[in-house]
Design brief:
Blueprint (H helix, E strand, L loop, with lengths): L2 H25 L18 H13 L13 H12 L5 H17 L9 H13 L8 H20 L8 H17 L5 H20 L27 H13 L14 H20 L7 H19 L4 H18 L4 H12 L9 H16 L3 H10 L7 H13 L8 H23 L29 H27 L1 H10 L9 H10 L5 H8 L4 H12 L8 H9 L8 H18 L8 H19 L9 H7 L11 H13 L16 H11 L12 H25 L3 H18 L4 H12 L11 H9 L5 H4 L5 H15 L19 H10 L4 H5 L3 H12 L3 H6 L6 H15 L9 H21 L4 H16 L6 H21 L7 H14 L3 H4 L1 H14 L7 H14 L6 H13 L9 H12 L6 H27 L3 H9 L4 H7 L2 H15 L5 H17 L7 H27 L5 H24 L1 H5 L4 H16 L11 H18 L11 H12 L4 H4 L7
Helix pairs in contact: 1-2, 1-4, 2-3, 3-4, 3-5, 4-6, 5-6, 5-7, 6-7, 6-8, 7-8, 7-9, 8-10, 9-11, 10-12, 11-12, 11-13, 12-14, 14-17, 16-17, 16-29, 17-29, 17-30, 18-19, 20-22, 22-24, 23-28, 24-25, 25-27, 29-30, 29-31, 30-31, 35-39, 39-40, 39-41, 40-42, 41-43, 42-43, 42-45, 43-46, ...
Length: about 1300
């Protein structure tokens, strides 16, 4: 027997066996115990028996191979048994088993004729199976068989022939079995869930192979599927829609105490996850399926994410992470909404601890993805219309990782590990870049007007695109600053937009509109007043503002709520009229139906809805409007006709049950409602897709800069509070990562971090405990000399402690703020301080009503204003307690202010009080102010401390106090204290130096012009001149800043050893500005050159009066005469002066460079008395002149290698030529002292080497250099002078003649015979 015949006979035998089994079960008596015979026809339909018998008659006489036989011939009889209403459950189970066997044997495949019809018929029959109610066990057996058969049908080779309806029916039937099994055995339910999961895997595994058709791009919900390719995208869409709907189930408690909706939601999420994992990015090729994810799925995920169990939230987060991996190009807005309303909301909304842990875990999972943090920063943090997702995520991790006392909890450890992962990710990617790639400038400027709302796609030119992204981030930061100014003064806010080049000139109404629309924390009342103003420009802004909304798909009250959420509706009727008119026109143009015939109808109904809202929700209105009255009031408003009654009734009930919220609060809304979701979907259709990008060194540096403050504080706090060695090692690794990042323009951050960590050792803190030192000993970070101090360690520690105190820097250590109780003082002052220190009125009431009333009466009789102005009579302790209370109140007592207005007013008021106290107690300023400064440091370490407006108000107030102290001649002993606090404030938030530049410059200029003789300390002059250079660098402040500096340097009486070094730094900062004027630069450099005369005078006076250095030491609090001599040595000053002019010689403009070279020559000539010693002279040449020539030559070579840089190359060549001429003149001028040096030969070779370098200078493709024409003349001049002075002589005992001969022969051979006619020595 052949193999084929054996197989055919086997199929016939199998079918015969199955037919016999089905007939046997059908013929079995319903009740075998009766003994009564029943004919088969009495138990079922005779046609079913006849079809089975007919099939049996054909089994062993087949006319063709079974694979070519229509499968309906041998499957239909079994399907009839399954569909029959009279067949017992046992027979149905046997028939299902028969079908299962036929399918498993693969009797037919997709190429068999009739396979498509029989597969769809099988699905219809099995899913429509009717069971006689017998016993639960039999029913469960049948349902198990149904699940097995359906799963096998989907796995069968011919399953590709199933149509979309059949596939959807299979999935729906399986889910019904899962639902019905809830009250049955656990095995059936588990089997049903497993089968459902398997079906989803089969269906969506095939999705990447399905081609896109025209139906997917149409609005139709029905697909014209005439092809024979089987099920396709429509079934995938319908099934996905069904799975999404399972997330929106009603909550029912089951017998196990779990809610049914939780089980179903979790099950649905598991299936959705499988579909996404198997389909991958192929979902993006199918628009309708992609829209299901954009709209249905994400809407449910965000809605239930913040209000679900930990299990469901965990699955939701996993689902979003999977979508991010495959489809993030198309979910930019949805992903931001998920972070805003779920991941960033759950941890901060007082949710249960388990939910918070899940949310933090999800955040950590996201930041662990290699490119998530940089993509989040570029897509959200650098876009003015989005939330700062990366920055808020980093701050959230800092908040949860920050220790709260005791050992670290699991959630703190998890958040800390995520934060450290961010550090490592940024550092590793920064270091990955090729070292030859320049890191670029760390500063970024808005060079011109560029619409901040316009996006452009990523460019191939990475440098250009990175610059664009960084400018957008700066624009966003400026917009937030403008918003802060706007809330205080709307004109100042809009003027700041203009100054920052965020709006055009003349102004563009769209820029104003988008500023109002997307800037967070704006005062909504001020926005509403602006939009309602009758000015023509304001009306244009209102129109553009309204155009930012999309009302498609919204009913009127939903659209009106959405519109009024963006601002507070003004109270003036005319302003309301203008605003509602703009809204009505927009809504009418975008209405989804034809209910309204004109915008006037919309306008009237809007007014009516606002009046209804006031009527229904104002407690002062006693008699409320009824539904009938509302409908009657709105008759005939629609072009003379009535609006549909159902429409008006729906609006009435919507307003009556849910008031239109008119609030002044701004920021992210508390929850995602339907109207906001419609806005999101409408906006997602027009914005740029999610930008995929890699790390760039400049972007990585900016990313860390955004979270540097809280990150450093958290890292230090964890290091301080943990005892676990593993966590300590992670802290040190994080410190290394931060140092790798900080090398790109964040050195201050690294310095502060190291300073903070140093307090845990005995290096900067002589009072460190043994435990703190032990932490670093375990990590092998302490040298042996620290672990075993010598006998004089106390002295060393004391000096280090003094140095630490004198630094005056900002410490970002993470000490938990001390919440020590204020000392209660007796009398009125003690009572007042006690009341101020209370958090709320409720806390005051807890004291007891009588005591509270007594305190209030005392305060009323205090005359508070006089208390502060006459505080000079207070004891020292009371003055300190009062100041501490006010300073803590200005910082919010460690808590967030409820509104920006409250914060602004509170901080301003508190600093006015501090100023009043200070001015009243100037006679004892040195006693109380050091403690006040410690209070500043303490509040700066609050986790929720906001440096703006605290430091902004503080620095302005402190500058006024400084002027008062100067004017009163009471600055002695207080100068360092006040400037230490001033420096602290701008280091808290350096941006205030830009926002307050005009006011600060006015104060600084007044100090320099009116009180220069009263500044006696280094810290004072350093602070004043640093503020002058920083505040004077802006276009609007440049003239005044330069004028002040020139005035100071022109008066030799006020140019002292104390301020000379800082004057040089300030002068160089002005000259280095891009927008500086050439004539001002020339004047500054002339003054710098002439100051060399002053250095000579100081040098002479030092020799004639050796005690001058000691007197200077006492004035500046330097501990030793040697240190004073080194710092105030005129030679050191000259070196610094030369270094400054050397740097200026590399400026962009040729006239500035050339004048710097000439000024340098002048300095050397004027300072001849200082440089008379060979050592001083040679060192000055090496450090300044030689270095300048080397730098200029290198710069010229760099330009020569660039394209289109001939002008720059020739310009730099001219400066280099001039510098060589200056070198020659200076060398000849100082020839005698230089020749007396034992190192003269080496110095002379250095000159010749530079002559040789310039002689061989090449300009690449820009032609020949002109310098080689000059070098021979310079050499001739030098050699002849040396021979004239007999420094270069044929009879000399050294080899200088031979050395020079060979060098000249190498550099300029034509000069050899002319300069050395005698030749070499014989």
């Amino acid at each position: 027997m052949t193999k084929a015949k054996r197989k055919e006979l086997g199929v016939s035998c199998m079918l015969n066996t199955e037919i016999g089994a089905v007939l046997a079960v059908i013929r079995r008596a319903p009740d075998p115990n009766t003994g009564i015979y029943h004919h088969p026809d009495e138990n079922c339909d005779a046609s079913i028996l006849q079809s089975l018998k007919s099939l049996r008659a054909l089994l062993f006489n087949p006319q063709q191979e079974w694979r070519t036989v229509d499968p309906s011939l041998y499957l239909s009889p079994f399907l009839d048994v399954i569909q029959s209403d009279d067949i017992p459950a046992a027979a149905t189970a046997v028939a299902l088993q028969s079908i299962l066997k036929i399918l498993r044997l693969g009797v037919f495949d997709e190429k068999t004729p009739g396979a498509k019809d029989v597969m769809n018929s099988a699905v219809a029959a099995i899913t429509g199976c009717r069971l006689q109610r017998t016993n639960p066990a039999a029913e469960e057996a049948v349902m198990m068989r149904i699940l097995q058969v359906l799963a096998l049908i989907m796995r069968h080779q011919a399953s590709v022939l199933l149509n979309d309806d059949s596939v959807c029916t299979v999935v729906n039937t399986c889910f019904q079995v899962v639902q019905q099994s809830a009250g049955r055995g656990d095995l059936l339910q588990r089997n049903g869930r497993y089968t459902m999961h398997e079906l989803i895997q089969i269906i969506y595994w095939r999705l990447p192979e399905i081609e896109v058709n025209d139906w997917e791009n149409s609005e139709s919900d029905t697909e014209d599927n005439t092809m024979d390719s089987g099920y396709g995208i429509r079934s995938a869409i319908d099934i996905f829609h069904f799975l999404c709907s399972l997330l929106n189930v009603v909550e029912i408690m089951d017998s196990d105490g779990l809610t049914t909706d939780e089980n179903i939601q979790h099950f649905a999420l598991v299936l959705i996850n499988s579909a996404i994992e198997l389909s991958g990015d192929s979902i993006g090729k199918h628009p309708k399926l992609l829209r299901k994810i954009h709209d249905d799925l994400f809407h449910h995920l965000i809605h239930y994410g913040a209000n679900s169990s930990p299990l469901v939230l965990s699955m939701i987060c996993s689902t979003v992470l999977n979508i991010y991996h495959f489809l993030r190009r198309s979910i930019r807005l949805q992903l931001e909404a998920f972070f805003s309303y779920v991941l960033l909301k759950v941890p901060s909304a007082g949710s249960p601890l388990q939910l918070q842990e899940v949310a933090i875990e999800a955040v950590v999972n996201f930041v662990r993805q290699p490119l998530f943090i940089v993509e989040a920063y570029v897509n959200y943090d650098c876009d003015p219309t989005f939330r700062n997702v990366f920055e808020d995520t980093g701050k959230l991790l800092c908040k949860y990782a920050f220790p709260t006392g005791g050992s670290l909890t699991s959630i703190q450890v998890q958040a800390f590990e995520g934060l450290v992962g961010v550090f490592h990710n940024i550092a590793d990617n920064i270091d990955k870049e090729d070292e030859s790639v320049p890191s670029g400038t760390h500063l970024v400027e808005i060079s011109g007007y560029r619409p901040f709302w316009e996006e452009k796609p990523k460019e191939e030119n990475t440098d250009t695109w990175v610059d664009y992204v960084r400018v957008r981030k700066l624009q966003k930061r400026k917009i937030l600053i403008a918003g802060s100014h706007f809330n205080r003064d709307d004109k100042k806010g809009l003027e700041y937009l203009k100054i920052s080049r965020l709006i055009s000139d003349p102004p563009d109404p769209k820029a104003h509109a988008l500023f109002f629309r997307y800037t967070p924390r704006l005062d909504k009342t001020m926005v509403g007043d602006y939009l309602g103003d009758p000015d023509d420009f304001h009306i244009q802004v209102l129109k553009e503002f309204t155009n930012t909304f999309e009302f498609s798909g919204m009913i009127l009250d939903t659209a009106l709520r959405t519109y009024l959420e963006a601002f507070r509706l003004p109270g003036e009727s005319q302003k309301i009229h203008r605003i509602l008119d703009a809204f009505s026109e927009k809504f009418y143009d975008q209405q989804s139906s034809d209910i309204f015939v004109s915008k006037d109808a919309v306008f009237v109904l809007c007014y009516s809805l606002i009046m209804l809202n006031t009527d229904q929700h104002n407690p002062q209105v006693k008699k409320k409007m009824t539904e009938e009255e509302f409908i009657r009031n709105n008759r005939s408003i629609n072009g003379g006709s009535d609006l549909p009654r159902e429409y008006l009734s729906e609006l009435f009930h919507s307003i009556a049950t849910n008031a239109i919220a008119i609030t002044n609060q701004s920021g992210t809304p508390a929850e995602m409602n339907p109207s906001r979701w419609i806005q999101l979907i409408n906006r997602s259709k027009i914005i740029q897709p999610f930008i995929l990008c890699d790390f760039d060194r400049r972007i990585g540096r900016d990313m860390f800069g955004a979270i540097a403050g809280p990150s450093v504080a958290t890292l230090a706090a964890v290091f301080e509070h943990t005892d676990e060695e593993e966590i300590l090692h992670e802290c040190i690794e994080a410190l290394f990562s931060i140092s790798r990042i900080a090398q790109y323009g964040l050195e201050d951050t690294l310095d502060e971090l190291l300073s903070t960590f140093s307090k845990f050792t005995a290096l900067l803190n002589p009072y460190a405990t043994a435990d703190e030192t032990l932490y670093l000993k375990r990590l092998k970070l302490l040298p042996q000399s620290v672990l075993e101090p010598e006998n004089d360690s106390d002295t060393v520690n004391s000096e280090l402690q003094d140095e630490r105190v004198d630094r005056g820097g900002v410490s970002l250590s993470a000490r938990v703020p001390k919440v020590a109780h204020l000392r209660r003082t007796s009398g009125i002052m003690g009572r007042f301080v006690n009341i101020l220190s209370m958090e709320t009125v409720e806390e005051a009431l807890n004291l007891g009503l009588s005591e509270f009333e007594q305190n209030m009466k005392i305060i009323q009789h205090c005359h508070i204003g006089s208390i502060f102005s006459t505080s000079s009579s207070l004891p020292d302790d009371s003055l300190l307690d009062l100041g501490r209370c006010i300073i803590f109140a200005a910082a919010g007592k460690g808590q967030k202010f409820s509104t920006l207005v409250e914060e602004e007013e509170t901080v301003a008021f508190c600093w006015d009080l501090i100023s009043s106290i200070t001015l009243a107690n100037m006679h004892r300023f040195s006693k109380f102010w050091p403690q006040y400064h410690e209070f500043f440091l303490e509040v700066a370490q609050f986790p929720l401390f906001s440096p703006i407006p605290f430091s902004e108000k503080a620095i302005l107030c402190l500058m006024k106090m400084c002027l008062k102290l100067l004017a009163s001649n009471q600055l002695e002993g207080a100068e360092e204290l006040i400037f230490k606090s001033i420096n602290l404030m701008w280091r808290m938030e350096k941006e205030i130096l830009d926002t307050c530049c005009e006011s600060l410059l006015q104060s600084v200029s007044k100090i320099i012009k009116e009180y220069p003789e009263k500044l006696q300390t280094q810290l004072g002059w350093m602070s004043v001149l640093n503020l002058l250079s920083v505040t004077g660098r802006h276009h609007e402040t440049y003239d005044q800043g330069v004028e002040t500096l020139i005035g100071l340097m022109s008066d030799e009486f006020h140019l002292t050893r104390t301020n000379y070094s800082y004057c040089i730094d300030c002068a160089f900062s002005f000259v280095a500005l891009k927008h500086s004027r050439v004539e001002c630069n020339v004047k500054i450099m002339d003054l710098l050159a002439e100051s060399a005369n002053l250095l000579v005078e100081w040098y002479r006076s030092a020799y004639s009066d050796p005690g001058s250095c000691m007197s200077m030491a006492s004035n500046t609090s330097i501990s030793s005469v040697e240190e004073s001599t080194r710092i105030y040595n005129p030679v050191s000053f000259f070196q610094k002066l030369g270094e400054s002019l050397k740097k200026t010689s590399l400026a962009r403009r040729e006239e500035v460079r050339n004048h710097a070279v000439i000024s340098l020559q002048k300095c050397f000539i004027l300072a001849e008395d200082i440089l008379f010693t060979p050592m001083n002279c040679i060192n000055s040449f090496y450090n300044v002149v030689f270095a300048m020539i080397d730098d200029l030559h290198e710069k010229m070579q760099q330009y020569s290698r660039r394209e289109n840089a001939e002008k720059e190359t020739r310009s730099m060549e001219n400066t280099l030529k001039l510098s060589m001429e200056v070198l020659t003149e200076l060398y000849l001028h100082f020839l005698m002292p230089i020749s007396e040096s034992p190192n003269f030969r080496t110095f002379w070779l250095g000159i010749l080497r530079r002559m040789d370098t310039c002689m061989k200078a090449k300009l690449g493709g820009y032609g020949e250099s002109n310098i080689p024409k000059t070098i021979p003349d310079l050499l001739r001049k030098i050699v002849e002078r040396m021979k004239e002075k007999e420094i270069l002589s044929l009879e000399g005992e050294d080899d200088l003649w031979e050395t020079t001969f060979y060098q000249i022969q190498w550099i300029a051979p034509a000069l050899t015979d002319e300069l050395f006619p005698q030749g070499l020595k014989k």
